[in-house]
Amino acid sequence: MEEPKKPMGWKELYLKEDWWAIYLGLGIVFAAILFFYTGNPFLKSLSVLPPSWTDSSKLIEHFSSQIGWYALQFIFWFIIFAISTRILGFRQSEYIPSFIFLYILSILTFIIGEYEPLSKNGFEAPLVALILGLAISNLIKLPKWMDAGFRVEYYIKTGIVLLGATLPFTLIIWAGPIAFMQATIISVVTCLTIYFVAHKLFGLDKRFGAVLGVGAAICGVSAAIAVGGAVKAKKEHVSITIALVTVWAIVMIFFIPYFSRFLNLHPAPVGAWVGSSEFADAAGFAAAVAYGKMVGNEEAAVRAFTLMKVIGRDIWLGIWSFAFALIACLKWEKEECETPPRASEIWWRFPKFVLGFFIASVVITVIASQYSLAEFDKVIKPELVKPIKSLRSWAFIFCFLSIGLTTRFRELASAGKKPFWAFTIGVIVNVILGFVLSVWVMGNFWISKTAQ
Amino acid sequence: MTCRDCRYFNNNPAFLERELPGLNALSSAYGSTSGENGICSKRDIYLSPVTRCKDFESGENKQ
Q: Which helix H or strand E contains A9, and what residues bound it?
């Protein structure tokens, strides 16, 4: 008799990109610590970034003197990503040319985004990356196999682990519970709004209502596919939710930063707003970084965003998924459900890269606690934190470009009026509630906490 | 035996990203949150492989 196949289990340690993001992110953090304590400037030089410029001679001079370091940096990313994607199952004949293209495009994006007349008018590197990526994928048809190198999630997860090294763990402890409460209020209201509009008002299938609801309420496409699997949604309904989340996420990347700039808002509440109202980590980081750069305080926007999105929303996905699996099994399909879902699913669905984010934050916080504030600013920031931040900027640009390069509007599923309006009503509720709570109710809290 | 052993079930990440357009734009089939979910080609549903149904047929998925 044929043996049943075994679940993936701990094989996910090398078969899921979350773990590779942890290995890469923490590898960089520990290498930075080693180079810091030995006084070796290697990582500082390797983390080179194109500078702000107006005069092209400055740019030419920079590249002529740093070309060797760019080549080494490329080799560094290339080796790590090539090995890990090979193990994940990607064809290297597809990944390698695609990543070379992505790296060259990233340099071009930085050059455009650092051109001062553009950056002072709100066209910073994150938005340039998105616009460039969207233009290429929608106007010029790149071969589909090139998606192998445009790994949005792998790059953003690596960037988030690196971000942990710049976020004090004490801030996570103090502000995390508030972020969780605020995010949960918004998530529950949004999810219930969409579910009731979709199912009760428009008569759509309950499972479809649930997938649409979590797509807007928790973490976009990742939530839609986690809960979609838990409730056995129709494949077509998952595709429609992916399309709606993607379109609205792209709209919000531009709407929230420019609307906030129009109102001249502080970047911390805007980061919290993006964290509670954007639909995906990658899109949210693009919006938060873009606004932070627009107003010259990237850290405040990114810190508030991370607390709200990663701590307040992402890490609870397993619980949402388990809860919907229980509802589906015990209420929606009582006759068909032979085995109720197991609570261990909460762990297997947990976004593991968050563990790397926590570890990076704890490690750097412990090191920083041994220095005075003045020493921290003079020694730790430029010698230890800056190289990590620069490599984080690269990971983010790979991600933002990849969002644009993989978002082909013509390929997305057509939604139909009812799903579109159910989701859109939820988006409106979510955005207004997120604005009110982040800016009006909790605005001062976010400003004070992210200033630490 | 569960969906994992069924010939209609496929949870290969590359296959899922082909079948669900836009999945890789803001998420991924290679992430922890997607678990081992896959597509049942018999019933055209997206599901977790911890269950089975009356359409179960043992065998390898060839897609």
A: none
Question: Would you state the structure tokens that stand for residue A211, as one six-digit string?
Answer: 């997938």
pLDDT, residue B1, reads 80
Provide the 3-class DSSP secondary structure of residue A386: helix
- ipTM, two decimals, is 0.93
- Within 13 Å, how many C-alpha atoms sit on residue B16's CB side? 28
Q: Nearest residue of A to residue B45 by CA position?
A: A234
A424 at the B interface (CB within 8 A)? Answer: no
Beta-bridge mates of residue A115: A53
Encoded tokens for A162: 């690196």
Residue in A86, A187, A155 with CA at minimum distance from that of residue A353: A155
Q: B22 by DSSP, 3-state: which? A: coil
Which positions of chain A have pLDDT values less than 70?
Answer: 1-2, 452
A152 in reach of chain B (CB within 8 A): yes
B6 phi and psi angles, rounded to 5 deg: -90, 145
CA distance A222 to A284: 14
Which two three-digit tokens encode residue A147? 């998606």
Q: B43 CA to chain A: closest CA distance, Å? A: 8
Could you give the angle at the alpha carbon of A121 between the alpha carbons of A115 and A126, nearest 5°? 65
B48: left (phi over 0), alpha (psi -120 to 50) or beta: beta
CA dist., res. A240 & res. A243, Å (int): 5
A226 touches chain B (CB under 8 A): yes
Could B22 and A246 be called an inter-chain contact, meaning their C-beta atoms sit closer than 8 Å? yes
A2/B5 CB distance under 8 A: yes
Quick check: helix, strand or coil at residue A210?
helix
Q: How far is the C-alpha of A255 from the C-alpha of A252, rounded, in Å?
A: 5
Query: pLDDT at residue B46 above 90?
Result: yes
CB atoms within 10 A of CB A331: 10
User: Residue B62 is encoded by which pair of tokens?
Assistant: 């060839």
Residues A300, A302, A306, CA angle at the centre, nearest 5°?
A: 120
Please check whether residue A179 is in contact with residue A275, taking contact to mean a CB–CB distance below 8 angstroms: yes
Stretch (H or E) spanning A337: none
Tokens of A58: 């400055």
Asked whether A380 and A367 are in contact (CB, 8 A), the reply is: yes
The confidence score (pLDDT) of residue B61 equals 67
* Strands, E assignment, A175-266: 233-234
Structure confidence at residue A452 (pLDDT): 61
What is the SS3 assignment for B46?
A: strand
CA A11 to CA A37: how far, in whole Å?
A: 35
Q: What CA–CA distances, in Å, run from A17 to A84, A87, A89, A150, B29?
A: 8, 10, 11, 13, 9
pLDDT for A1: 55
Give the model confidence (pLDDT) of A194-207 as tens digits.
999 999 999 999 99
Task: Count the Cβ atoms, other than its own, within 10 Å of residue B38.
Answer: 27
pLDDT at position B62 is 56
